[in-house]
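Provenance and format

Records in this collection were gathered into a single text stream. Each protein contributes a sequence line and a C-alpha cell line. The two records reproduced below are adjacent in the stream.
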Amino acid sequence: MDRSPVLNTAGAESEDLMCDSVKCYICLNPFEKQTVGSLENCQHVFCLECILQWSQCCSYL
C-alpha cells in the first residue's frame, strides 16, 4: 500500500497568495515569486522545492 502524500501544485504561484507575510512551513522563509505546493487535505503552503524534498525523505512521519 502506497502511503505517499498527494501534492497539490496546479501551477500555484506565491504571488497568488492572499497575505504578503506567508512563509513556507518547512524552511520558514517568506515566499517570493516562486511555485508553491500543499498536501491534500492540508491548508499549509510550502515552497515547491521544500515539499518535494520532504515527500522524498520524511513523508512517512
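Adjacent record:
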Amino acid sequence: MVEEYNTCNGKHYRNSFEGFFAEFQDSFLYTFVLQFIIVIIMHLHSGKGKYWRVLSISAASGLMGAIIEHATIGYLCTNDNQNSKHTLYLLLINEIFWIINEYAIPYLNLIKLESIARGNSANIIKSIIYVLVIPFITFRLLIGYYRMTNGVLNNNDIKRLHGLAFWIMAIADIICTVSILYFIRTYNKQASASITDNNINGVIKQSSYIILIIVDIVSFILSILMIISSYTDELNNNLIVPFHCLKNSYVMVLAADAIIFKYGVAMAPIDEHSGRIGSSFDISSGKYNYKSSLVNIQYNYGSNNCLNYNLKSSFSNSDTSLKMNTVQLSELLNTKGRNNSITDNSHSRLSSDDDIYSSLNEINNMRNKRNGLFYTNTKGHFHNYSSDDACYSNSPD
C-alpha cells in the first residue's frame, strides 16, 4: 500500500528510529531544521517585534511539521509496515503545524502592508487575506484526513488538495505584493519631505521587491504543477521538487531579507546625509574629511523651524576620526513629550526592541514633519528656538 504511492521510494528501514534519523538527509526535513536554527538566532540577536515573532513561530511550526511527517515515513517504511494499511491520526493533527507555517507568509506580507497602508483600501485587503485563510485551512485539513485514512503521505487526491492549498496561498501573496507596491508608489508621490533622498522606496527596492515577486511566482507555479500532476502521469514529479524546496525555505529567505532591510535603514542616514554637511566619509578608515568648521543642522517640523543646532568645531588639515552616531528612526520619533534637545548618548545601532517594519509606519506618520535625521556626537552649542508645544502639538499619538 505504501509503495503504491511512492511514500518510501525504495527506502527500507529496520526500525522506526533508524528510519527517522535516516530521513535527515532529505532536504524537506533538513531545510526546516536549518531554517529554525537560523531564524531563532536572528530573532534573538537582531530582531524583535511582531514580524520576527511570526517568523519564529512559523519556523518552529515548520520544524514540528517536518519532524512528525518524516517520523511517520520512518515508521511506514520499516520492513514490517510497508505492506500494511494504517490509520495515522498524527498526520491529521500535524496539519495544524503546516497551516501555521505556510499561511504565515501571506500574514508576514500583511504586516508589511499595514506599515504603509491606511484607510478603507487597506482594510479591504486585510479582510480578503483573512477570508482566504478559510479555504486554505479547509484544504489542509482535508489533506490530513486523506493521509490519516489512507495511511499514505501522497496520492492523487492529496496532490490535488496540495495544489489548491498552494494556489490559495499564491493568491494571497499576489494580493499583498500588488498592494505593497501600490501603496509604496502612492506614498512616494505624496511625501513632500522624506527622511532620505530616495525616500521609503530606497530602503525597500534593493531586495524586497525581488523577494516578494519570487515568492509569488514560485507559489503559483508550484500550485499549477501539483494540480496537473494529480490528473496525469505525463508530468514527472521530480519537476515539482525544486519549487517545493523553495517554498519550504520562504521563512528563512524573508528573515534574511528583514535583516538586509534593517541594516539598510541603519546605513541610510550615513549614505544620504554625509554629503550635506560638506564632508566625505571613508567607511573603511572611519574618518571624516571636513571642508568647513561650522555645521548647521535644522530639524523642520512642518513649516516650523523648531530646532536649530549650531555645531561649532575646528579641525586641523589632517583627517579627523569621529565616532558617528546614526540615530534610529524610531528613537528619534519617540521623543514626543520629552525635552526636544538631542544628547550625544544615543546609540549607533537599531534598537533591538523595535520591529523593523514598524519603522515604516513611523516614517509614514512623520514624513511631512521631519527632515535631516542625522547628527554627529561632535560637541557644540545647542540652541532651542521653539517651545515644546510648537514642536509636538501636531505629533501623532
